[in-house]
Amino acid sequence: MDYVAELRKKVGHLPLILPGAVVIAFNKQNQVLLQHRKDGGWGLPGGLMELGESLEETAKREVKEETGLEIAGLKLLGIFSGQEFHYKLPNGDELYSVTAVFQTNQIAGKLVPDLSESQELRFF
Q1: Are 122 and 36 spatial neighbours (Cβ–Cβ below 8 Å)?
Q2: Are 18 and 97 in contact (CB under 8 A)?
Q3: Which residues pair with residue 6 across a beta bridge?
Q4: Which alpha helices (DSSP H) does the chain contain, by range?
Q5: Domains defined for the chain, CATH in brackets
């Protein structure tokens, strides 16, 4: 289920408070994984919470979906929210992001980008 899409059917473009998570993932060379998103920007892998998930589960699921990697040993670095995290998207949707930022160096699997969301994945 895409929770946000279902909400949008009911509320249109009105502002929503949307929780999510991103992950600062370090490889063995202490490089950070970044995702070159379809919108052109580089960022941390992550995304929005679905119903019934914890923030940690959201982080793990999103990293797996976007990068193909399994992660563990998440450490919460902080929660970011407030007026400076208000966004108005090109389609008119408004949101206030509440984002948990996690860090890990426990990474397994093969790096495989989800080409529907990413142009490229790279460690820097």
Answers
A1: yes
A2: yes
A3: none
A4: 3-11, 55-67
A5: 3-123 (3.90.79.10)
Could you tell me the pTM of the whole model?
Answer: 0.92
Dihedral, 102, 106, 107, 108 alpha carbons, nearest 10? -140
Alpha carbon distance 25, 73 (integer Å): 11
The residue written with tokens 């490229």 in the block is 120
DSSP for 95-118? EEEEEEEEEE-EEES-----TTTE
Helix (H) / strand (E) element for 80: namely strand 75-80
pLDDT tens, position by position, 38-85: 888 999 999 999 999 999 999 999 999 999 999 999 999 999 999 999
Angle value at C-alpha 75, between 74 and 78, nearest 5 degrees: 125
DSSP code of residue 55: H
Q: How far apart are CA 89 and CA 49, in angstroms?
A: 18
